[in-house]
Amino acid sequence: MDFKEAMQKRHMVRKYTDKPLSDEIIAKINERIELNNKTYNLNMKLMINNSKGVSSIMKLIMAKGVNNFIILAGDVSGNLDERLGYSGADIMLYAQTLGLNTWWVGGTFNRSVSSYVDNKKVTGIIAIGYGQTQGVPHKSKNVEDVSKYEGTIIPSWFISGVDGALLAPTALNKQDFMLIGNGNRVKIECSNGIFTGSNVGLIKYHFELGAGKGNFEWEN
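Above: the chain sequence. Below: its structure as tokens.
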């Protein structure tokens, strides 16, 4: 399974089996985390056999068996949330290629996990493991709802990029973003309060995967 196929197959999974992650799988995930940490100056960390990732109320209502998770953390800076969103997207899709399932937890994670990454800002966690199901697609907006292209002919790469962006996890699954294309330049308009940075990173990664990074440039 390549990353594009993983992007299509990945769905939010909140309930997990008790099947343990093998040493080989753990090593591969840690290697991917370390690559992203070094590339984007982050401090993400994998926690194994630890049930403290989500709040107690979430365990009672909808989350089951979340015993492995990745802490999304780094030093405070202007674009930390975006870098964590971008890197988190990479790790989630990588996990999918390994046969694992994931869940991006932004608002309901247990804040006590911050103690595992001293003096770093934690924006959320990614639950990871073998899901009880593979999840299901959520209701999604259409391409024309979240994008516009300033030109008479819309390039195929732009459409493919928007299709990819619509597969990204976003806060409350609202998909409150707009992708605007002009020539080979693309910009994102996104306003989701405290989740804006994370959402921008997640959307950027998925758009790049769908469109092909060599076909366009991001406009600030």
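The chain has a mean pLDDT of 95.
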